[in-house]
Predict the structure.
Amino acid sequence: GAVVSQHPSRVICKSGTSVKIECRSLDFQATTMFWYRQFPKQSLMLMATSNEGSKATYEQGVEKDKFLINHASLTLSTLTVTSAHPEDSSFYICSATPGTSGGTIYNEQFFGPGTRLTVL
Amino acid sequence: AQKITQTQPGMFVQEKEAVTLDCTYDTSDPSYGLFWYKQPSSGEMIFLIYQGSYDQQNATEGRYSLNFQKARKSANLVISASQLGDSAMYFCAMSPMDSNYQLIWGAGTKLIIKP
């Protein structure tokens, strides 16, 4: 099956620093990648959708200057949390889809293992 | 509005019993896909099963089956012969055909299997 890696799996940082999270599709080309945020005991909240080579589309209420997303290639997307604060502490999950060109189930997303961010 | 509803925030089930997790959906799109994911305490999202809106038969994957009732807009997940390792959060999700591959998520059900 399709594999998506996410790095780092866990990060602890001081308030005011920036944190970069990488999401890679290892064995397929991802036309679209998604970034989610998940608070404890809650569902996934879509933050943004990114297509390779174009600007990310952010969901309402998500600060694009706070959460910088770069989808530089068909296998890599990065999320940078700029000037992180304690309220940014959360579980961040990326997913990727090959689109209709390679997927066996239309609209199937393959998920990374997640990154747990703790801002002190 | 497109929406997924999971009405069971938590469930306790005895090991080896079957369990049904409820999911209802709302969409006006004629084409859509329905997914179930399992999320253990480690946080990873594990794909379980998929049902397409035009599929005539209910999907099955090992111990997982999806009870798809299109007229009632329900897509319940049935887990047969539950195991302790089935304890996790379970999310139902829907992807309308023209959604740019986005998934609409339910609130989830926390399933705990008792020994």
The radius of gyration of chain B is 14 Å. Residues 62 and 80 of chain B are 9 Å apart (CA to CA). Chain B touches chain A through 23 residues (CB under 8 Å). Chain B has a mean pLDDT of 94.
